[in-house]
Amino acid sequence: xxxxxxxxxxxxxxxxxxxxxxxxxxxxxVMMGLELLLNGVILAAAAFWYFLAPSGTEGQVLIVIVVxxxxxxxxxxxxxxxxxxxxxxxxxxxxxxxxxG
Amino acid sequence: MTTxxxxxxxxxxxxxxxxxxxxxxxxxxxxxxxxxxxxxxxxVLMTGLQYVGLVIVLMMVIEMVVMAVFMIMYMMNxxxxxxxxxxxxxxxxxxxxxxxxxxxxxxALLVDWPVxxxxxxPDPTMALGESLMSGQMLTMMTLGVTLFATIVxxxxxxxxxxxxxxLGDELDAPASDDRDRGGVGR
Lengths: 101, 186
Known about the structure:
The structure holds 2 protein chains of 2 kinds.
Chain A lengths: L2 H21 L3 H25 L6 H31 L13
Chain B lengths: L1 H18 L6 H21 L3 H25 L15 H21 L13 H9 L4 H22 L4 H5 L19
């Protein structure tokens, strides 16, 4: 168990999360992909703290920030889903085309 | 022992995370995602961050249970009873995800990382608390304000009929425009 092993696992989580966020049609599943992506960031932050700079607390603070970002992402995401579903009965990303360029 | 534990947790985190997008039930996907989060929390605990690891466990369990409720509200495929595809643009996304993994993992393996500087504080939790209450106070305050803004924003977004719908844009309607009559003071 070393820094590289942790970072490769974190990279795998980020990639899987990115794949999910890009492919899923359901808005809720897109959010699950984003959560998985941030999960990888948490793991990488913990690894950086432990293996590179354990004497400081910046790594831990970064984890606190990411965990908060996950909570905010989920709350805001569900609020947007609720709003768009209430307005247009849409729960799929393909149907929400107002902002298509 | 430590290596075996690491391998098991890492495999659980990645495999459960990948299965989230393979199972055809969104309810199962939620709990697989929870399993992935718990495995990552285990890995964080292995680095000696007991407090942060436990916070992740508590937060993710609650978050996934809340997510399960919304999942049931908006699910495309209840309980996996119908076999259906919930994907779009699978090939393009697979290429992007694979390229991301190669870039990140390649960077992780090829970069000449610096040597470990210092050793962990005897009590990392205490160190985190002291840091958040002194040097990182601005971070903590920003997080607090952001969370408060989230509360306001989500309530505004999720409210079906607010006071402007009921009392007009100037809030000066003599009687509120409600679908149902009644209520306090009327």
